[in-house]
Predict the 3D structure of the following.
Amino acid sequence: MPVVKKILFLAACNLTLSLYGQNYWQQEINYTIDVSLIESESSLDGFMKLQYINHSPDTLSFIWFHLWPNAYKNDKTAFSDQLLENGRTDFYFSDKEKRGYINHLDFRVDGVAAQTQDHPEYFDIIKVLLPLPLAPGKAVQITTPFHEKLPYNFSRGGYSGKSFQVTQWYPKPAVYDQQGWHPMPYLDQGEFYSEFGNFDVRITLPGNFLVAATGELQNEEEKRWLKINARGNMTGFRESQTKTLEYKQNNIHDFAWFADRNFVVNYDSLLLPSGKTIEVFSFYGPDKTEAWKNSIRFVKDAVVFHSSLIGEYPYSCVTVVEAALERSGGMEYPTIALISSQISEKQLPLVIEHEVGHNWFYGILANNERSFPWMDEGINTYYDRRFMAGKAKVEKPSPDWFQRKLPDDPLKFLLAVVTKEKSDQPISTSSEQFTRVNYSLIAYEKTGFWMKQLEDSLGVALFDSCMQEYFRLWRYKHPYPKDFQSVIEKTSGKNLEGQFALLDKTGPLTPEKSKKIKPSFLFSLHNSDKIDYLNLLPAVGYNLYDQFMVGALIHNYDLPANNFQFLLAPMYATGSRQFNGIGRAGYGWNPEGRIRKIEIAAGASRFSTLKGIDSNGNKIFSGFFKFASSIRIVFANKTFRSQVEKWLEFKSFIIGENGFNYYLKSTDSVAYPAKQPYSTRYLNQLTFGIVNYRVLYPYDAQLQIQQGSEFYRINLTGNYFLNYSTGGGLNVRMFAAKFGYLGEKTPAKALETGIYQPKLTATRGNEDFTYSNYFIGRNEFSGLSSQQIMIKDGALKLRTDLFEGLQGRSDNWIAALNFNSTLPNKLLPAWLPLKLFLDIGTYADAWQSNPTTSRFLYVGGLQLSLFKNYINIYAPLLYSSDFSDNLKTVPEENTFWRKISFSIDIQRFNFRSITRNLLY
């Protein structure tokens, strides 16, 4: 832009903005960059010259610079930490050659060497000290060479094979505005804030590369060749030569470019209503030819749509590029957008519309995206929805039975779920403070609904005129939320304080309405914001005694969750010919402050645990009934992004059991069972638990106190997972228990409390004294069901049913360590999830004089983990001589197959764990 025009342009903007009572200014940076691609090293060598013009009223003594390639330098950067918080370990465990960095910097200011200072926290920010103060209205020229090792494309850019996505690649000054400096580390979740200026970039690379870049290509021969060969075979490459391509663009704040030998190019021009013609390009891989055949039309539709509603597209070209991206979606840069290779043909029109739309909200209206992502992503999402609503309705097949049970708008449904759980955050939250889920649901989707609400309050015509005025006043500038609100209120003539106050609040945008209750077969999530479903579905069960059980499961466990939840599953047992089942009811609420959730619940269950034939030839059964009441308190974290969950639960059990008495029948001298009357007992249990769901080295721990009529027991259980860099890892389980008597210890009391006393070896079904685990057969000593165990107490995975003295049982204390490890990748097929396990334990009696066993007992072998570790099969291969010596005395038990055991661990199911804690 000529100097005179530039002065007039800035003066006009300042005059216009002053009408709104603002004293606005912004810095200006003009770039000239020469860069060469070193293909063999996946690196860049460059030289940057920039003009920094100080339009602020302040004298500057330094300038913060972003060196964002250094975010990939090691695993101690803010970028690396955030990836781990968001559940990704690929960068953390990446090889050195996949890392990136920028170096060979030599900053000079007007030819004078400038000193630099590292940022106190971040590797990818430095302070360049100006040799002389930069006064208001003055300019300096800053130069530096640079070398960048491109990273593998972990986030938005880098290399993938011989394809190069060069983004955030040059030293970039931080923004200095009315609120001061804005130095920020590179993050994967959270975008950018940069100064406007003019770019002149020259890229040197092998002649057989195709390049898509920000701005207008200045090489007429290259441009002509691209247009001629559009959708062709791209003939005429110069295999052994290099070429230098020059791109220029004014009034932008970033520059990105993409290079690949295999690009297919589409080209056309678009005539805007003003009479202006712009060039439209799309670049994509040859395997995407069918999916991308209409990509130019999609780009045109997006440009026309946004130009008509907001303001005309001001640049002379627009480009979309298909390339490798670490996730599905896209990424915007001025005049060019990257579209992920993962995008399907069906998704492509909307993704292109969204990314091209960012030329308005990000490219032209350049707010601070890191601090206010809603002003970019959310407003753009509003226009996405409006774009979709305006498209001609396409005849779709009628939804099938399953589809009719799903939400019409899945994202709106998920937003309602997190809002109900009070795990939502205000729209005004900054990018890095959002949880992974809320970044999408709040910054994008909720803001889109908020914008629709604003449109409804103003009417479409007035709303559109407000947005057009916002665009006119703030294009090529950095608006803040207060600026957006000011324009909307002044243009509409309305006080919208209440509407804009919603940006800082959690909860629904409109008050919740009472819901209707409606029955549903199996389940339904359709219109769940208006309907509470009473779900009815078949229930089945099985154990050796009751045999198959059939019945119904009635529940209201819906999403969003109800405060009052219940389930009832009565089942008729075909074996015992009685009604069994489970039932539960609870009420939960989410208070504010230091407690996230409180739930009070009560449950009951009844099943058989023994069967026999009495002296009259009749089948008889005995079993248990259980009543349990509880109160559970989940504590709130200091930050929403915390991966930690802490909870406290008090639970009280009342359990009734009846077994068999055996007596001899005089006629045949055979012992026959007779059913005993029920006897009841109680157990109180207080548990404090902590879980860290982080993807790297997750852990959990529980401290539990149990108390019955004659004893107390304290259990401490912990699990720690050590990730391997190649995948999988080592899980370490730690267990310790202290047992004691209430009152004086007597032989009778020791006998009665036997099942409560902790032990080292595998625990059986008849030792599940709270009936909290599922067992096929709880009291079996032969057959497959007798080989089922549960991971409890010391969990040494060897059954010692015949040897009471070998079980490591103690009425004092026990302690154990359990290890299981995945095997190296490619050692076994992926479908064979085989692990190694090793259990080591000790107990109080082993440390007394003349112990019956060694002080330490151990078992090791192979573990097969199925169905996400909910079923585990254990094959002991080595174990203490104490075990082997005794097993030799019973050859029928001392076989490989009889020593195999298995556990069914469905009690380990944890919704927050399987969703990686995404909903909080």
Q: What stands out?
A: DSSP finds 15 helices and 44 strands in the chain. Residues 271 and 277 are 4 Å apart (CA to CA). Confidence is low (pLDDT under 50) at residues 1-21.
